[in-house]
Amino acid sequence: MFKISKAMLISLFLLMVLSASSFMLFQIYSSKTVQTNLLKQTLLQESEALFSNIKAVKEWNESHLEVLVKRVDNSYEETNSYKMIRELAKFYNKNDNYYLKITSLKPMNPNNQPDSLKKRH
Q1: Rounded-to-10 torsion of CA 9, 13, 15, 17
Q2: pLDDT tens digit string along 29-40?
Q3: For residues 117 and 114, what is the distance between their CA atoms, to the nearest angstrom?
Q4: 71 CB-near residues (< 8 Å, 6+ apart)
Q5: DSSP class per residue in 36-100
Q6: In the structure, what pLDDT confidence band is assigned to residue 83 with cuts at 50, 70 and 90?
Q7: Are 104 and 92 in contact (CB under 8 A)?
Q8: Which own/partner pairs from 68-72 qualify as long-range (CB within 8 Å, at least 24 positions apart)?
Q9: How far apart are CA 8 and CA 2, in angstroms?
Q10: Quick count: other Cβ atoms within 10 Å of Cβ 58?
Q11: What is the distance of C-alpha 119 from the center of its chain?
């Protein structure tokens, strides 16, 4: 009859624990990678949707000859599309989870230089 020694049982047990641990670590790593990729994809989709909405507001503003904005002191001020976009960016930055910054590949204002990520898209 085949006899299993105590050392062989311990070795077999350790091998099983090591195999199970390796499998679990691999699953955790691959799950983290999938979650990170999904998060990046979601953030990109959200930013593209937000950009599309802001672009639509800008085009709407440009299609009207005059857009008046009521100020806090109840006065009205004419606004153009660029001023409206700056106001929207301030509003989002103050009231939402977004941070908007106006950039251009050929900016008139040097503070509006795009970073490497914005140049890519």
Answers
A1: -170
A2: 889 989 999 999
A3: 8
A4: 77
A5: HHHHHHHHHHHHHHHHHHHHHHHHHHHHSS-EEEE-TTS-EEEE-HHHHHHHHHHHHHHHSS---
A6: confident
A7: no
A8: none
A9: 12
A10: 16
A11: 16
Q: Which amino acid is at 41?
A: Q
Query: For residue 111, what pLDDT is reported?
Result: 76
Rg of the chain taking only CA atoms, in angstroms: 29
Structure tokens at 102: 């106006």
DSSP 113: -
Quickly count: other Cβ atoms within 10 Å of residue 74's Cβ: 6
Both structure tokens of 13 = 């047990």
- DSSP H or E stretch at residue 3: none
Greatest pairwise CA separation for the chain in angstroms: 100
Q: Is the pLDDT of residue 105 over 80?
A: no
pLDDT digits (tens, 9 = 90+) for 109-120: 777 777 777 666
